[in-house]
Write a structure and sequence with these properties.
alpha+beta, 4-stranded mixed sheet, disordered N terminus, SPFH domain-containing protein, SPFH_YdjI
Length: 379
């Protein structure tokens, strides 16, 4: 009985597999799908009779359409035998006996007899396995990362260690599909009906990538803020998605060899939030204040403050008050903040010139000026 079933199965399977197939992308795929099997379309709008062919045999002459943004990996008995990166329609040709078809010009009697005999030896099943898989060559979005507690790194711009809790997302790209499949994709995903998705919470391989990205965040922040060629600040992270992606990709490559071992690369990042620890927030406030008082803006602020002090001293204490303001300015290091050089103490002309300028600006009264003039001239 078993022998008769095997014969019937072998002959029936051979006849069904003579039909050419039309392979397409599965329906209902998520936008983050990275790898999935090409599926045969047995019927279309009620037409078509190829519904009983073997699931692991591709008949010679079958057509496979590769869409834009995808590549096609060909498998024979578990080994990768070819890769197509250009979109378009392709025809399957194989020397394997199971792929030969009377409709593809491979003869009439020979393919039927050979295939029936080979399948009879395997209980009616084909003695080989063929498959075609689509692999995404696009940027794959919505790969998220985040830390539950502060991570710390040495910040080159601030000159100290800083810490923050951060979260965001990145886009991922498969830059070497063959390396990706050989070294990273589990065998369970190299089956019809399976979809390898980096965002799938049940995908253990994708979860491993998430953990490696989180482990690379601190080195990535350090690489970004310590780059002497960029002069990057920690506050620029959320504005420079491409620059930080390069730092994150370099840190991941250094720690886990994504590109060289797995054919993967991080393309862009989006920092959703950075919550600095208390010490870092205080330090950033100090830096912001220093930035506000730096350069010409700082000079203007300081000069206005000194002028206001001179005016107040002149109103309250006359010449003595002005002398006090000058002494205080010197003690506070005003000269080190790009202030005009004070006139020499023994130069009466310079003193009178300065006093006249203050009189014209309304900073001192005519009586104050007369007193300073008499003192400078020794009267």
């Amino acid at each position: 009985m078993g022998l008769r079933q095997a014969v019937a199965g072998a002959v029936g399977g051979v006849l069904a597999d003579q039909w050419k197939d039309f392979y397409t992308v599965p329906t209902g795929l998520p936008s983050t799908a990275a790898l999935f099997a090409a599926v045969p379309r047995g019927t279309n709008a009620g037409r078509g009779s190829n519904t009983s062919a073997s699931s692991n045999i591709i008949t010679n002459g079958s057509r496979i359409v590769v869409p834009e943004g995808y590549g096609l990996l060909l498998f024979q008995d578990g080994a990768i035998t070819g890769f197509v990166a250009e979109p378009g329609g392709y025809e399957w040709r194989s020397d394997d006996t199971n792929s030969q078809s009377i409709f593809a010009g491979d003869g009439f009697v020979s393919p039927l007899i050979k295939q029936s005999w080979e399948r009879f030896k395997f209980g009616g099943q084909p003695g080989s396995q063929q498959a075609a898989f689509f692999v995404s060559l696009k940027e794959l979005p919505d790969n998220r990362f985040g830390t539950q507690s502060e991570i710390y790194w040495d910040d080159g711009f601030l000159g100290t260690q800083v810490g923050a809790v951060t979260r965001g997302s990145y886009t991922l790209k498969i830059v070497d599909p063959i390396l990706f499949v050989k070294n990273f994709v589990p065998a369970s995903y190299l089956q019809p009906g399976q979809v390898f998705d980096f965002t799938d919470l049940d995908n253990a391989a994708a979860s491993q990538l998430f953990n490696e990205v989180v482990g690379s965040l601190a080195p990535a922040f350090s690489l970004y803020t310590n780059d002497p060629g960029k002069g990057n600040r920690i506050t620029k992270l959320q504005q420079d998605s491409l620059g930080f992606a390069q730092s994150l990709s370099a840190a991941v490559e250094q720690g886990y060899q994504w590109n060289s071992d797995r054919g993967l690369a991080i393309v862009k990042t989006a920092i959703v939030s950075i919550e600095y620890d208390a010490n870092t927030r205080e330090l950033l406030k100090t830096v912001q204040r220093a930035d506000a008082l730096a350069g010409s803006r700082g000079n203007s602020n300081l000069q206005a403050s000194v002028a206001q002090g001179i005016q107040s001293a002149g109103e309250n204490g006359g010449a003595a008050g002005l002398v006090g303001v000058g002494m205080a300015s010197g003690m506070l290091g005003v000269g080190g903040m790009q202030q005009p050089v004070a006139p020499a103490a023994d130069d009466p002309v310079a003193k009178l010139k300065k006093a006249k300028e203050m009189l014209d600006l309304g900073l001192i009264t005519q009586d104050d000026y007369d007193k300073l003039k008499a003192k400078a001239l020794g009267l």
